[in-house]
Write a structure and sequence with these properties.
By secondary structure, the protein is of the alpha/beta class. Helices cover 49% and strands 17% of the residues.
């Protein structure tokens, strides 16, 4: 005769064992999360992709444990990246090209903006570019994207850097405060800074995005060794990052809620302008355009010592993105978030 007590005991043991296995599996999955510290510039909508991914939960989905580090200027962020305290930095391509000229070995592996999206804002007393001759123009730091924006604007005005005094003052909030206090008459901004500048009474003198200047304004920069030594971690990070952005592109209400919390603003004007630029400039394939890459390399080469190489492959590695495309990841994103393409 079958011992029913033994059967019940065995069933309980199996249930407990299954529960223990499930707990161990879950613990193992959590332990498998790879830490990934990424720097980003606050006050720049082209740097918000990682925040979208964090809030959307896509990092956890792909077993990435992110640390989002706010750094006021891209050039400073690259210094932190080179120190080994970051795995990646959201920064302009020109900063990476400059760093490689100085001996670094960085690679851009994705782009979040292939045009120069900045506008140069001035105090109301400045009526034309000619009024800026001999005056100060504030940038976040030398060799930053805001610094490059000034160079492009000066070229647009048929002026050179000798006609103005370029001074580094830090992030958006510092530069805006300096303008409002009368310390400097001009500075470049990207959304949401553009909307904030308008709200404070500053005037846009030139919109470089409207000029259609090809430029890899922002993207993911990593050390070349990281691409080779941690390909799986980088691929999973990119998947999480891309899916977070796709969700934001397809869900305006949710994205604006994230933007509102990130920049602590409920201003409809700021939120509308910021989201509009975000949706306009983010390339859906996250690939830096050839024209933008060439333009940055040429501009950086014209400023300072000549570059040792103008070969894009010495600054860009699209291998991880190409792998995702071949695997059908982007096709999957387009099916899951169809409105992101509009």
């Amino acid at each position: 005769m079958l011992d029913t007590n033994w059967v019940r005991t065995l069933a309980r043991s199996m249930a407990i064992g299954a529960g223990a296995i499930a707990m161990l599996t879950a613990a193992g999955s959590a332990a498998a999360q790879d830490a990934f510290a990424i720097g980003h510039v606050p006050g720049d909508v082209t740097s918000i992709g990682a925040k979208f991914a964090e809030v959307a939960g896509t990092f956890a989905k792909y077993n990435i444990k992110p640390e989002l580090v706010r750094i006021d200027a891209g050039s400073r962020g690259v210094q932190v990246l080179l120190s080994g305290k970051l795995q990646a930095m959201q920064v302009g391509f020109s900063v990476a090209v400059n760093a490689n000229r100085e001996g670094a070995d960085l690679r851009m592996v994705s782009s979040s903006c292939n045009v120069m999206p900045m506008e140069i804002f001035v105090v109301p007393t400045v009526k034309s570019a000619a009024d800026l001759k001999g005056q100060k123009i504030a940038v976040s730091s030398f060799a930053s994207e805001s610094d490059m924006a000034v160079s492009l604007a000066l070229r647009h005005w048929n002026m050179t850097r000798k006609d103005v005094v370029v001074t580094q003052l830090g992030g958006m909030s510092q530069r805006l405060a300096a303008q409002l206090s009368g310390q400097v008459p001009a500075s470049p901004y990207v959304a949401p800074g553009t909307a904030l500048a308008r709200e404070k009474g500053l005037v846009s003198l030139v919109d470089l995005a409207a000029e259609g200047e090809p430029w890899v304004f922002n993207g993911l920069i990593v050390n070349r060794d990281f691409v080779k030594s941690k390909p799986d971690v980088l691929k999973r990070f990119l998947k999480a990052y891309i899916e977070g952005v796709y969700k934001a592109l397809s869900d305006e209400k949710w994205a604006k809620e994230v933007i509102s919390k990130e920049w602590k603003t409920d201003s409809k004007t700021v939120l509308d302008e910021t989201y509009k630029l975000f949706k306009k400039v983010y390339p859906r394939d996250f690939t830096p355009s050839n024209a933008a890459i060439a333009n940055v390399i040429a501009e950086v080469n014209s400023i300072g010592p000549p570059l040792a190489t103008k070969n894009p492959e010495d600054y860009v590695d699209l291998g991880p993105l190409d792998a995702l495309k071949k695997e059908g990841f982007f096709d999957e994103m387009k099916k899951r978030y169809p409105t992101a393409l509009k």
